[in-house]
Amino acid sequence: xxxxxxxxxxxxxxxxxxxxxxxxxxxxxxxxxxxxxxxxxxxxxxxxxxxxxxxxxxxxxxxxxxxxxxxxxxxxxxxxxxxxxxxxxxxxx
Length: 93
Description:
Shape: elongated
Number of strands: 0
Order of helices and strands: HHHH
Oligomer: single chain
Helix content: 55-70%
Strand content: under 5%
Structural class: mainly alpha
């Protein structure tokens, strides 16, 4: 704190925090900051989508299949864990 500008800034910051505390403005300030960050995140996602749709590499990356369309299978090839049990019982005989 050798620089007087930093010291004055620290005093102004303390006065602002004191006024904010006395007027109970911490909640509204938090809500405004949260809303602004959510809006910035949505805008960033929108711009990223637009950029990826315009570029060739982005279109190829978006065109790749995701894991949502895949279905898990058991080792015996049946998709449901409660698949036919008669085949397994026939092997025991």
